[in-house]
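User: C-alpha cells for this one?
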Amino acid sequence: MTTPYQQPQSAPVPPQTPPQMPQQAPSGAPQPPGRQMPPQGGPQSAYPQQMPQQAQMPPQQQPAPPHLSQPAPPPAGANPSQPYAAVGGYTSPIPVRRTHLGHALTSEWTKIKSVRSTIWTLGVMIALVVGIGLLVAASTSDDDYVTAPPTLPAFFGTLLGQLCLVTLGVLVVSSEYGTGMIRTSFTACPNRARVLTAKALVFFTLSFTTTTVALALVAFAGSGMHSGPDVMDPSGEQMVGATIGAGLYMSLLGLLSLAVGSMLRHSAGAITAMLGVVLLPAILPAFLMMSDSLRDLGETMQKYSSPNSLAALFQLDEELGSGWSQLGALAAVTGAALIAAYALLEKRDV
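Assistant:
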C-alpha cells in the first residue's frame, strides 16, 4: 500500500504583541536628565526655518572706494632698485624687463622690413642707380674719360635715385599717421623721443648701406670697363666721394624727409614739400641771377643745390669744391629739422 503525501506542519507562530508606547509623564512632573521632551511644535520648531534656495539672493559686493582702487605705493624705506614684490607688493605673472633703445630699434626694423613700400622704393632706387650707371658706362668710350673720372656713370643714377629715398623717408613716419599705427607705437613705447630716434637710426643705416653698395658697384664696374692707357685713374679721394660721400648725401636727404614727414604728418604734403626742397634750388637761381642785387644769392643757392652738391662729391667741377662743405650744410639743415620734429612730437597729443 502507498501512504498518502502529508504536508509538513510548520512551527507555531507566536502571537505578535503591539509595541508599547512609552508613557508620558505629566506635564508638571520633573523629567529625567537624559529624557527631556522636545519643545512644543515638533522637531522642526527647534531650528530656524530656512527660505527656499531660489529665494536666497547672493550678497552684493559694495564698490571699493576710489582711493582703494589705485595701487598702493611701495612701503616707506623700501629700496627703489629692489622689486616691489619683495616688499609685499603685486607680483606680475609675466616677466617684466626695463625697456631701452634696443627694443625700439628692433621694433622699427621689424616694421620697416615688413611693409611693401620699403621693398619697392629701395628696389627702384637700386635699379635706377645701377641700371642708369651701367648704361652710361656701356655707351661711352675710353676717350670720354680722359678728363673725367670713370666713376662718372654713377652720378647720373643718383639724380633720380635720391627721389626714391625722399619718398621712403616721408613714408617711414607719415604712413603710421595715416593708418593710426602711431598710437599703437606710442602706447607700446610712451617715450616718443625714443621712437623717433629709433626710426631715424634704422632708416639712415638702411639707406646709407644700400646706397653706398649700389654706388660702389657702379664705380668699380665703370673703372673696370674703361681702363685704357689714356683713361684718368681715379684717386682715393674721388672714390670716397663717389661712394661714401654720395651715399651720405642721399641718406641725409632721406633723413631730412623723415623729419619733414614727422612735422607735417601727411604723406602727400611732406613729399610735395621735399620735392620743392630738392628741385627749387636748382631752378630758382636761373631767375635770381637775372637781377644784379640777387645774383650772389642765386649763385650760392645754385652751388648748394642737390645736383651740384652731388657733382662736387664726384669732383666733376673744380669750381664747386670737394663737396664736403655742401654735405656739412645738408647735415646742419637736417639736424635743425630733427630738433623741430622732436619739439613738435612732445608738444602734440599724437
